[in-house]
Design a protein that fits this description.
Number of helices of chain A: 12
Number of helices of chain B: 11
Distance between the termini of chain B: 50 Å
Low-confidence stretches of chain A: 1-7
Helix content of chain A: 25-40%
Strand order of the largest sheet of chain B: 6-7-8-3-9-10
Shape of chain B: globular
Oligomer: heterodimer
Mean pLDDT of chain B: 92
Strand content of chain B: 25-35%
Structural class of chain B: alpha/beta
Largest sheet of chain A: 6 strands, mixed
Number of strands of chain B: 14
Strand content of chain A: 25-35%
Distance between the termini of chain A: 49 Å
Radius of gyration of chain A: 24 Å
Amino acid sequence: MNQVNRTQPQGATIAESPIIVEELTKSFGNFLAVDHVSFSVNHGEVFGWLGPNGAGKTTTIRMLLGLIKPTSGRASVLGYDPAQQTKTMQAHVGYMSQQFTLYNELTARENIQFYGRVYGLEREELGQRQIEILRMAGLEGRENVLTSQLSGGWKQRLALGCAIVHRPQILFLDEPTAGVDPISRRDFWGLIYSLTKKGVTVLVTTHYMDEAELCQRVGFISQGRLVAMDSPARLKETQMRGMVLEINTSDPDRALRILKTMQQRNRSQLQEVALYGAQIHAVVSDVREYKEVIRQNLLDENLEVNSIEWIAPTLEDVFISSVTAVES
Amino acid sequence: MLNSEIALSAEGLVKSFKAGSGWNTAVDHLSLQVHRGETYGLIGPDGAGKTTTTRLLLGLLSRTEGTSSILGFDSIRSPYEIRERTGYITQQFVLPADLTVMENMRFFARVQGVSNEQQKKVIPELLAFAGLANFSDRLAGQLSGGMKKKLALACSLIHAPKVILLDEPTLGVDPVSRREFWSLLGNLRAEQGVTIFVCTPYMDEAERCTHIGLIYQGKLIANDTPTRIKGQVAGELLELTPSRFVPAQELVTNLEGVLEVQTYGEKLHVFVDEAGRRIPQMVSALVGAGINHTGIRRIEVRMEEAFISLIRRQREMESEAAARDDSKEEK
C-alpha cells in the first residue's frame, strides 16, 4: 500500500483524460438509474456533476469509485477500471462527502493521523503531510482542538485535508459546502483551485447553482441521462428554452395573480411566473412580442408597470429549463 | 396595543447560553420589524443565531434581554395567542412516516383544534395548493424530499395562520423542488397576504424576499430590501481570471482605487471606485508583472458579494474597537 502511494498510476498515459465515462449504464431491476452516459474530465479541471434528487448523480459517482459495478458501458479512472482494479485505483482517489466523515472526539491532528494510517502512509511521510495539511486548512494553532469544537468552515477544510492526505490525483466532492458561511466557502473553493494547480482533477456535486458557477465545466443529469454539458457561461447562452423577463409593478402580489391567470390560458407561452421579492420573474417562450402582451394585460388591470425587461438567465434558470424539458 | 401593521417585532433581543464557565451570546441585541404581507428572510451561515431568533419570537425559548412579539402578542406572555395565529416549520420537521398524506393532515388539524367540518373544506384545498391532491393515500415516508417539504408546509397552514415561520425549509432539497417550494410561498403571499419569516443559509434565496436581515454571530449586520443591501457595498465590481492567482491577488489588492478583493474559485472579484478608469490601469499593472488574465469585465453585485463585504466590514470594526479597548487599558 505504501508503495502504491508513491508510484504513478500504471494504467494512465499522459494524454488520456483522468476520468472517462463511455455509455455507462446502471439498472436496478427495471429502473434505469444511469442511462448510457458519456463524458470525460480533463486533467486539473473542476467538473460539476449536477442533477435533481434521484437523477443518477450519486450512482454515477459510486460506479466511478468502484463501489458498484456498471450494468454496461465503461468507466476509466486514471486509466484503471474502477470495477476491476478498485483497490489500486482507490489509492489515488480522494472522496469527501457532505457529512464530513470526521471523528468529533478526536483532535484535528488525530483525524489527519487516522486517515493517514488508513491510507497506509509511513510515519515520516505522515508527519510531513500533517504539517502541510494543517497549514493548508489554516488550522495551525488549532491542531489539538477537538473536532467537535471547530466551526463549520474549519471542519470542512479539515475534512478536505483528510480526504487528500494520500495525495490523490482525483478528488470527488459530494455536496461539500452545505451550511458553511460564505467567507469559508470562498476559502474552500480557493483551496480546491490551488489543488488543481498541482494537477489534481476535481469532480463535485452540489444542489446550489451559485456554487456550480465556480466549476469550469458542468454536466446536467436528469432521469439517468446527460442532458447538457459545457461551461456555465456557454450553457446560459445555449441551453435556455425561453427568456427571462423581470417585471416591476406597483403591486407585485396582484400582478402575480394576473399573470397566473394568463399562464393558465397559455402555458406554452408563459412557462413560469414567480415572485422574486418585489419583482416578478416570468420565463417566456422565444417570442419577443409577448413582452408587450404582458405589459398591456397589467395596464388593463390598472397596474403601474415601472419596468419590464429581459434579464440574463441564471445557471439555476438554465438547469430547471434543461431538466424539466426531459421530464415533460 | 401595538401597530396592527407589524406582524413580527424584536427590540434589543438577547439570548445567552451558559457555555462552560462563561456565557455564549447566540442572539446579540437584535432588533427587527416585519410588516404584514412581507416575506422577510433571515439570512446567515450555520450557527449565526437564525434558529434561536425564530424560537425567541415564537416564545419557545426565554429571552435574556429585550422584547419580541408576533401580531402584537408578546412572545413570552401570550404563547397561546401566538400559536393560534402562526405556523412553524422547524429545520428537522419530521412527519409521521407511517401515516398517509391525508392522515398527516388530519393529525395536524386535530392538534390545532380544527373542526371536522372545517377540515373537509380546508384539507382538499391545501392538498391542491401543495400539488399533493393525487397523493393523499401515499405514506409520508414514501414521498420524495421535495414533496415532504410541501406536505410540511400544507400541515403548518391547516389552521389558516396569518404568519408562518420557516427554519431552513429547503435544506437538502434539489433545485427543482426548491423552486417549486418558493413558488408556493409566493402564491401564499400574493393570494392570501400571509406574512412569511424564513431562515436560510442560501444567499440566492434572499432575492426571493421583500426584506432581509443578514445575521452574523448573533448580530443583525444589515436589515433592508435586497436591492438596498446590495447598494450598501461601495464601488463597482470587476471579475477576472488571472494565470497566476496569488501574485495577481496581491498585486491587485495594492492598486490605487481598489476598495476590496474577494476570491471566487479561480477568479478574482475586485471592487473599484471607478471601473472605466481602473480597468486599463489594472490591465497594464498585470501585464507589467508578467501575469496573463482573461475575461476582465464588470459584473453585478449579488447578495453573496454584499454579505461577504459587510461581514468583513463588521470584523474590521470589531477589531478596531478591540484595539481601542486595549490602548485604553494600557493607559
